[in-house]
Specification:
By secondary structure, the protein is an all-alpha fold. It contains 4 helices and no strands.
Length: about 90
């Protein structure tokens, strides 16, 4: 007679504290497929409204980048406006 899993409602003749019983019933956690956990985290971040980066550090970073590339931004915006005004 095969031993039934007591965790699934079956009766077991062996004591639950015996090491033989624990070896016989190797209960494994269900594993997610590769990428499933990451997709779940992405979905939770999309739903939430919390900021991942605080406002002030992000603002300082953007200002620093803008100051470094200010001349390039100026030329690109002038070129865009002249091209846009010709059409």
């Amino acid at each position: 007679m095969a031993l039934k899993n007591p965790l699934r409602g079956g009766k077991c003749a062996v004591s639950l504290n015996s090491p033989a019983h624990l070896q016989h019933l190797s209960i494994k956690k269900p594993r997610f497929q590769p990428g499933q956990t990451v997709l779940h985290k992405i979905q939770s971040f999309q739903v939430s409204t919390e900021l991942l980066i605080q406002k002030m550090p992000f603002q300082r970073l953007v200002r620093k980048i803008v100051m470094e590339y200010r001349a390039i931004f100026q030329k690109a915006s002038e070129a865009y406006l002249t091209a846009y005004s010709k059409t």
